[in-house]
TrEMBL record, chains A, B:
<dbReference type="InterPro" id="IPR010079">
    <property type="entry name" value="Xanthine_PRibTrfase"/>
</dbReference>
<dbReference type="InterPro" id="IPR000836">
    <property type="entry name" value="PRTase_dom"/>
</dbReference>
<comment type="function">
    <text>Converts the preformed base xanthine, a product of nucleic acid breakdown, to xanthosine 5'-monophosphate (XMP), so it can be reused for RNA or DNA synthesis.</text>
</comment>
<comment type="subunit">
    <text>Homodimer.</text>
</comment>
<feature type="binding site">
    <location>
        <position position="156"/>
    </location>
    <ligand>
        <name>xanthine</name>
    </ligand>
</feature>
<keyword id="KW-0660">Purine salvage</keyword>
<dbReference type="GO" id="GO:0005737">
    <property type="term" value="C:cytoplasm"/>
</dbReference>
<dbReference type="GO" id="GO:0032265">
    <property type="term" value="P:XMP salvage"/>
</dbReference>
<feature type="domain" description="Phosphoribosyltransferase">
    <location>
        <begin position="42"/>
        <end position="157"/>
    </location>
</feature>
<keyword id="KW-0328">Glycosyltransferase</keyword>
<keyword id="KW-0808">Transferase</keyword>
<feature type="binding site">
    <location>
        <position position="27"/>
    </location>
    <ligand>
        <name>xanthine</name>
    </ligand>
</feature>
<dbReference type="InterPro" id="IPR050118">
    <property type="entry name" value="Pur/Pyrimidine_PRTase"/>
</dbReference>
<dbReference type="GO" id="GO:0000310">
    <property type="term" value="F:xanthine phosphoribosyltransferase activity"/>
</dbReference>
<feature type="binding site">
    <location>
        <begin position="128"/>
        <end position="132"/>
    </location>
    <ligand>
        <name>5-phospho-alpha-D-ribose 1-diphosphate</name>
    </ligand>
</feature>
<dbReference type="GO" id="GO:0006166">
    <property type="term" value="P:purine ribonucleoside salvage"/>
</dbReference>
<comment type="pathway">
    <text>Purine metabolism; XMP biosynthesis via salvage pathway; XMP from xanthine: step 1/1.</text>
</comment>
Length: 202, 202
């Protein structure tokens, strides 16, 4: 998604070879037009799959789940994060380890809003270790819902997240895949669509 | 906003005379069409004020800030919540006491994204004690930005939030004002627009 990569090149702050800040347009201040375009792109990439609900995790996935829900004409659902290990009743829940914060938290979804009739598209802002997304995949499966796949806005392709999700049998599309970065420079991988033969869907 | 009140009557779960759950359509699962309509209504209510940026606080304000940003064609910004009392550099910050959780947290906004050139509309899902919204107002004023006002989706009018904000000189519009409630019944106040003389703006 060229518009997104251009913004990352122009406005992204690369603090180290692992830390990219995009808080001027994606996840603190949000460019609503860009967010809507991201939602339309996820809808396009998963157009071959019926989707009844978009799923994300609070907080920074919400704007992209909303945009994708708008593009698809379906509701979205966001998992809540809690430190408490005590499980509430009637929720699907999964533990997520945050390597950044060195702590484990729980993500949870009310069982009322996810079930075998749902066809779910998971979206999030970043794919890095994939821990939170793997937790969402686990919840979708526990609910007996069908998983269309995972859409990520920015993928740090040098981290293990995509491998983790693909190893779970999940189809992943990311809109900007960063092969490597260092302060002052960012290298993107080719878009999947330009690598894949025309007409192929995974 | 009749559509909203109808959904609250139909789907809201009133757990006590103070606790209303609307997580089937507003703040866990989100009806994207309704959220967009809410954004359009905030845009309409503040149409007499120029707005350059919508402001909210994570997580459950994000979908309404996004919808309002879409309706107004402006970006939105969400304050981050942190337990840490240590202040990061270059942020505007305010303490917020949560009566529900009996703890005080900090909300903060990067100074890069708010300044004297901004005309800000604050939105959130609930107005109850008004603590988080008062913190956002304080941040807007610290930044030297102009405040158009505060828009809330659901107001618990029997709590002190509106009084607190109006006491700070803030114009408040809420889309559903609950005068009182108890399990099985909810009583709304009249819409402000039907109470105010036509053409009046506060």
């Amino acid at each position: 998604m060229d518009m997104l990569k251009q913004r990352i090149r122009q406005e992204g702050q690369i603090l180290s070879d692992k830390v990219l800040k995009v808080d001027s347009f994606l996840n603190h201040q949000v460019d609503t037009e860009l967010a809507l375009a991201i939602g339309r792109e996820f809808a396009r990439l998963f157009a071959d799959k019926p989707v009844t609900k978009v799923l994300t995790v609070e907080a920074s996935g919400i704007q992209f789940a909303m945009a994708t829900g708008i593009a698809l004409g379906v509701p979205f659902l966001y998992a809540k994060k809690k430190k408490a290990v005590t499980l509430a009743e009637n929720v699907y829940s999964a533990p997520v380890h945050s390597f950044t914060r060195q702590e484990t938290y729980q993500i949870s979804i009310s069982q009322k809003y996810l079930g075998p009739a749902d066809k779910v598209l998971i979206v999030d802002d970043f794919l890095a270790t994939g821990a939170a997304l793997a937790g969402l995949v686990q919840i979708v499966r526990e609910a007996g819902a069908e998983l269309a796949g995972v859409g990520c806005v920015v993928e740090k392709s040098f981290q293990e997240g995509r491998g983790l999700l693909e190893g779970m049998g999940v189809r992943v599309h990311s809109l900007a895949r960063i092969a490597s970065m260092a302060p002052g420079e960012v290298h993107f991988m080719d878009d999947e669509r330009t690598v894949q033969p025309i007409g192929e869907t995974k």
